[in-house]
């Protein structure tokens, strides 16, 4: 599959976000509203992504969106959709995307830790559905997990995640599956408020899916960055 253009990744990424949020196929008008473009523009782009095997169109009758008795077209991502967003340039992340995500998240983290880190955690979780690239999503989610763990320091709950932290190991040895488990664990942490716990739970499936599709180079980069984030946060 050829590389997606930036515009195509933007539409695909936003449709994936809406699909994961609602757990139902997405109408093109929802994508149009989210991106502030004409409905016709959104429809044509989603049809193009369908032709590339990234989306599947369905026809449904649903009063909530199309009115009683009206048939409307909705779109759901195919198995190839996440790969299409993740595996750019013949299976590799674009270096520029990765470096931009890394520097941006480390700068935000350093600034946030100088103030209220819980405010930064809240901000990251609120904007997790909106990253422009897979690299940005993974770095933001990893940072949110690190900040969530920081909030648990000194609590009884923290002892239950120590084994997972040990499983993360050193760069080059990192068990990225442990990151997914930590995200789910934070959704159950009573010390975090209910809204934050729900945000971690809502992102669990998407985060696990993206981690599973990383190539070797992507795993190495995320492993190194995770070590830097944990050190910076003090975990």
Write structural notes for this entry.
The chain folds into two domains: 6-86, Winged helix-like DNA-binding domain superfamily/Winged helix DNA-binding domain (Arc Repressor Mutant, subunit A), CATH 1.10.10; 92-233, no CATH class. Strands 1-3-2 form a three-stranded antiparallel sheet. The relative contact order is 0.11. The longest helix has 19 residues, at 95-113. It has 235 residues and is mainly alpha-helical. The protein has 13 helices and three strands, in the order H-E-H-H-E-H-E-H-H-H-H-H-H-H-H-H. The protein has helices at 6-22, 28-35, 39-51, 63-66, 79-86, 88-91, 95-113, 117-127, 134-151, 162-168, 176-186, 194-212, 216-233; strands at residues 26-27, 55-61, 71-77. Helix 1 packs across helix 5 and helix 7 (95-113) packs antiparallel against helix 8 (117-127).
Q: What topology, given as strand order, has the largest sheet?
A: 1-3-2
Q: Report the end-to-end length measured between terminal Cα atoms.
A: 40 Å
Spell the H/E element sequence.
HEHHEHEHHHHHHHHH
- E-strand count: 3
Structural class: mainly alpha
Proportion in helices: 55-70%
What is the radius of gyration? 19 Å
Beta fraction: 5-15%
Count of helical regions: 13
The largest sheet is: 3 strands, antiparallel
Give the overall pLDDT as a whole number: 76
The total domain count is 2
Shape: elongated
Ranges with pLDDT <50 over ≥5 residues? 88-92, 170-174
